[in-house]
Amino acid sequence: MTQKPTYEELEQKIKKQAEEQLRKSEGQYRAYFEGIFSGTYISSPEGKLIACNKEYNKIFGFNSTRHAMETPIQMLSVNPDERFDFLNLLKKEKQLTGYEPNLKKIDGTPLHLIENSSGVFDENGNLTQIRGFLLDVTEQKKLENQLMQAQKMEAIGTLAGGIAHDFNNILAGIFGYAQLAEIHINQPEKAKEHIAQVIKSGQRAAALIRQILTFSRQSEFKPRPMSVSPLLKEALKLIRSSIPSNIEIKENIFSKAIIIADATQIHQVIMNLCTNAYQAMGDTGGELTVGLHEVEISTQQSFPGLNILTGKYIRLEVIDTGHGIDEKTLERIFDPYFTTKETGKGTGLGLAVVDGIVKKQNGFIKSFSKVGHGSKFQVFWPIIE
After folding, report:
1. Which residues contact 372 (CB under 8 A, 6 or more apart)?
2. What is the pTM of this model?
3. Exposure check for the chain: N or C terminus, fewer CB within 10 A?
4. CA 24 → CA 20, 29, 30, 51, 334, distances in Å?
5. 188-216 and 263-281 helices cross at what angle (nearest 10)?
6. Backbone angles phi, psi at 39, to 5 degrees
7. What residue ranges do the domains of the chain occupy?
8. Does domain 141-382 have CATH number 3.40.190.10?
9. 25-136 and 141-382, same CATH topology
10. Which three-class secondary structure string do you get for the chain?
């Protein structure tokens, strides 16, 4: 007859099975934790790391998990004060999606990261733990900046013929007035008038160079409160000096509202849209109308398929009287590398870059066109009160 196990033996067996099950569960959890593509971490609100995976170590340049665990998260912040902003936002929202922390590697190399994180709260609503997923997009950001710079250079190349023509006119004026000043060297008043014209022409040339350098300069994306109106007027000066004389430019600038944006990128949007507009009119000439107005969007019905917040917006409008775009082509104009231009006359980056810039600045863009009746592009940016 088989002897029944004692109570102690049963207790030991159950304990052993529980420990085995726990080890198995921990192993499965660790395998899952390490297998996640993003850098995954669990930390206390004070910045003490509780757990992390290998991808987290790789992102920040740690040589081991122990090294990571010994490093407070605050040491990875470019600006320690931003850690407090992050905590306050997490306490308010409970979870964050698409957050872009300003962090760096352990050796100080800056990073571009996208973070999805959630807070764990106790019964009193106090934040006790943070669980985050980090995606390293540093290389993608570098490529994006290179793409934008390449497109800027393409636009400068497109305008080069007109700019060279304008420079020749300026130089001709300088030489002409300099010769007149030389002729009237013994007539101080007349010579003085001619020299004044030389100085004026020189200033015009310097202003043109400044505009080109501002547009072509490679700079980091720095959004700040700004007015589009003066930038638009400045860009139109450069456009006017580089397009054929048979294209008339009409300005309807009626807003000085403030938006959050990067000045160089706004300049790039304007230059791209205006360059495309005058190219669409070609040798036949036409009318380029550029407007800036304030509008209020109270419903999304006018913009189906777009997730748009209601409120006040500034609307940049660029209208041409060119050949127009057919419906099928209009659906693809914002696709990267899509172009209807001849080989060597465009990469198809312009409108794709414009679309990317506008979206990054919480705006949106609409296009309207009809073959034989020209095109209209509208860019909307939210106004800050």
Report:
1. 323, 324
2. 0.51
3. N
4. 6, 9, 10, 18, 51
5. 100
6. -75, 115
7. 25-136, 141-382
8. no
9. no
10. CCCCCCHHHHHHHHHHHHHHHHHHHHHHHHHHHHHCCCEEEEECCCCCEEEECHHHHHHHCCCCHHHHHCCCHHHHECCCHHHHHHHHHHHHHCEEEEECCCEECCCCCECCEEEEEEEEECCCCCEEEEEEEEEECHHHHHHHHHHHHHHHHHHHHHHHHHHHHHHHHHHHHHHHHHHHHHHCCCCHHHHHHHHHHHHHHHHHHHHHHHHHHHHHCCCCCCCEEEEHHHHHHHHHHHHHHHCCCCEEEEEEECCCCEEEECHHHHHHHHHHHHHHHHHHHHHHCEEEEEEEEEEEECCCCCCCCCCCCCEEEEEEEEEECCCCCCHHHHCCCCCCCCCCCCCCCCCCCHHHHHHHHHHHCCCEEEEEECCCCCEEEEEEEEECC
Q: Which two tokens stand for residue 137?
A: 């997009």
Cα–Cα distances (Å) from 272 to 4, 135, 277, 353, in that order, read 87, 31, 9, 9
Cβ partners under 8 Å of residue 16, min gap 6: none
- Angstrom distance (rounded) from CA 242 to CA 114: 41
Other C-beta atoms closer than 10 Å to the C-beta of 187 total 12
Report pLDDT digits (tens) over 275-288: 888 888 877 889 99
The residues facing 375 across adjacent strands are 320, 369
The neighbour count for residue 115, using CB atoms within 10 Å, is 19
C-alpha distances in Å from residue 203, one per residue of 1, 171, 209, 217, 269: 113, 12, 10, 21, 26
Q: How many residues does the chain have?
A: 385
CA gap 186, 184 in Å, rounded: 5
Fold of 25-136: Beta-Lactamase (3.30.450)
Positions of the chain with pLDDT lower than 50, given as ranges: 28-29, 32, 343-348
Instruction: Give the Cα separation of 95 and 3 in Å (integer).
Output: 57
Tokens of 48: 């003490």
Strand partners, 39: 134
The per-residue pLDDT for range 200-221, each reduced to its tens digit, is 777 767 766 665 665 555 555 6
